[in-house]
Structure to design on (86 residues):
């Protein structure tokens, strides 16, 4: 185990509570991976409203936005977007 903790914004937690079981499982699997691999690079990067660069990982039909705060060994998950199908 890497020793990193997870930090979820309140909005992320609220989205997870509203998501269906399959989506929740996809996100939980990815969060577990991020905790174990805090240096993981995303599929792409996007700046947040503070100008900080967030890694963005696509897992199934879910986008997870995060950045790793290596100084305090915490992966900070800032946003989750569920991709709607046709």
């Amino acid at each position: 185990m890497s020793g990193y903790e997870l930090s979820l914004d309140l909005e992320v937690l609220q989205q997870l509570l509203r998501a269906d079981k399959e989506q929740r499982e996809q996100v939980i699997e990815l969060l577990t991976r991020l905790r174990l691999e805090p240096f993981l690079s995303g599929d792409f990067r996007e700046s947040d409203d503070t100008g900080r660069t967030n890694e963005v990982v696509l897992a199934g039909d879910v986008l997870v936005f995060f950045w790793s705060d290596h100084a305090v060994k915490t992966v900070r998950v800032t946003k989750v977007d569920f991709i709607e199908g046709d």
Remarks:
- The longest strand covers residues 74-82.
